[in-house]
UniProtKB/TrEMBL annotation:
SUPFAM superfamilies: Homeodomain-like. Residues 11-69 form the HTH tetR-type domain. This is TetR family transcriptional regulator. Keywords: DNA-binding, Transcription, Transcription regulation. InterPro entries: Homeodomain-like_sf (IPR009057), HTH-type_TetR-like_transc_reg (IPR050109), HTH_TetR (IPR001647). It comes from Amycolatopsis rubida. It comes from the Bacteria. Residues 32-51 bind DNA. Pfam families: TetR_N (PF00440). One of its GO terms (molecular function) is transcription cis-regulatory region binding.
Length: 188
């Protein structure tokens, strides 16, 4: 029982460091490990014991953000949720993760850690379901539609004027449906 308590405490400490690093590095990408430790409420040696280098910390942040991204996609269950509902829900949840973990999600070019082959395959299935439901125009290049959708999500998360994932999701979905949807298909 004590071993489980120690493990849970260790996981909470690592989580606190990752969250503090996201906040601190978002404000100041040149922040030191000491500043991150202070924000996490731990000693600098605790941060270094868990993350051997700044690069290891950023990699761990990206891995954590990637897992949150995957969890957001899976929680919607786009394989069984009505396609237009899933489109909005996936968009809002992914934007929520991107807004909360912006530094980590942008730490690697083109979100190479986030858009894994598994995620791309899920997106492709999702876009095929949109096409099959009649939400998209016949003959739409689904790979192109998915790529544009991912780019729109990325750009929406960069929008400094809004931190509301629901409002940004509505803009992204409206844009996707306007560009690829059948005339008259809307969220409303």
């Amino acid at each position: 029982m004590e071993k489980r308590a120690l493990r849970a405490d260790s996981e909470r400490t690592a989580q606190a460091i990752l969250e503090a690093a996201e906040r601190v590095l978002s404000d100041n990408p040149a922040a030191t490990m000491e500043q991150i430790a202070e924000a996490a409420g731990v000693s600098r040696t605790t941060v270094h014991r868990r993350f051997a280098s700044r690069e290891a910390l950023v990699d761990a942040m990206t891995l954590w953000a990637t897992q949150q991204f995957h969890n957001a996609l899976a929680s919607v269950r786009p394989d069984v949720t009505p396609p237009l509902v899933a489109l909005y829900q996936v968009t809002a949840k992914v934007l929520s993760v991107k807004l909360r973990w912006g530094f980590a999600m942008n730490a690697h070019p083109a979100e190479e850690g986030v858009l894994t082959p598994d995620v791309l395959a899920q997106c492709d299935v999702f876009f095929r379901r949109l096409e099959e439901s009649g939400a998209l125009r016949p003959g739409v290049d689904l790979v192109w539609a998915r790529r544009v959708y991912c780019a729109l999500i990325h750009e929406a998360a960069q929008d400094q004027g809004s931190d509301d994932p629901d409002a940004l999701a509505t803009r992204v979905v409206d844009t996707v449906l306007g560009g690829f949807g059948k005339p008259g298909v809307t969220m409303g």
